[in-house]
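User: APA family basic amino acid/polyamine antiporter, Arcicella rosea:
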Amino acid sequence: MKSTPPNQGKLVRSIGLTSAVVLIISSVIGTGVFKKVAPMSAALESPSLVLIAWLIAGLISLAGTLSNAEVASMLADSGGEFVYFRKIYNRFFAFLFGWTNFAVIRTASIASIAYVFSQSLNSVFPFPVTSASLAEINFLGLHPFDNLSVKLVAIALIIFLTYFNYKGLKLGENLSRVLTALMITVMLLIIILALLSNYGSLENITTNSVRYNADEMSGATLFKALALACLSAFWGYEGWASVGFIGGEMKNPQKNLPLALIIGTLIIMALYMSMNFVYLYILPIDDFIKIYESKNGIAAVAVVSHFLGSWGGVLISGLILVATFNCASTTILLASRLFYAMANDKMFFKSVDYIHPVYNTPSRALFIQAIWTSLLVLSGTFDQLTDMLIFAAFIFYGATAFGVFVLRKKMPEAHRPYKVIGYPIVPAIFVLFCVILIVNTLIEKPVEALSGLGLMATGLPFYYYWTKNK
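Assistant: Predicted structure for APA family basic amino acid/polyamine antiporter:
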């Protein structure tokens, strides 16, 4: 990365291994672990298959983490995969990655998480109801004022957390430490209380839905159902690679970044498997299918309220508020570094290439990110955008894992502080999975997949303009 102009501050290497692990956990655990067991149950109709889907998604994510870690150990810098792709492939592919993150992947994630926070707060402290006349206002096919009070609280959260992270990296890091410790403590408390309660039964784990048909759930049908369920689980794991965006602010990133990726992913896997085992231990799978079909309810709230009563509902609602607040804050912190790295390389808006001289944060990147994310919240399209998110994200995840093979060929003698365990099998499995997921999404969900590719393509005129000017 280029040197910082004299009238600016500079990114400071202040993040150690523990802080990096905390940032990974806080950037991943948001809404998926509390909600996705319901759609997965509807797709698979079997508790054991639901747990298998979570395990497969965790192992695949771990394979991607291990592959990403080797590349990160060689090329760690602010911007993460943007920097990796520029060196492994070319500037154009790096730009596509960065632009897609700005257009949808990171910003839609922040919008979605902030909206869930606002919805959860609304369930505890009801907001004013939007009038029908205001909700029906149509702008380009969108209804920006529908459910306005929830949207305004989500936008207020985005603005508050943006300002908080603008004031310094340490503030955001310390907030994540406190909230992550609180979040893990409450999750462990729920797991222990559930296993000790009289409400659960191993029979719930071994009993399939009344709709389950063993003859139908086999072969290609089983594969498609597992693939669909794994897509839901991957939303729960989404975000593990984004800690690479702060590679330029980590101490000894060549060593600490790969270690943080591996440790953080393993902790998340353990928490997810335990939480989902508890869900399926407490309630029969048909209850989760009903929650999914009702489109009104959060699986985790139903489970904890069932065995702990009304105060359990308050406990789990508080946990969801903490998790979404924490995840939104960390994603805002991390993603802004990517957009700064793009601007620093003349592939984003010129004014964003700026580090605040006092707080040493990419302040303008934070603000432009907040503006676009708030517009996504008002548009109400972020749920549709997150459907495209996994498809788009795995194009780039696969490209990073394939980069292991490219770099081994292009730079065979280069120093590698970490080498992926099980090479070449582990990265090959992950790349193969990414290809299968991308092809399957194109076949099964062509509208979402093609829309995702269309969003990526919106960056082409910007790329032409910025490249021409450079």
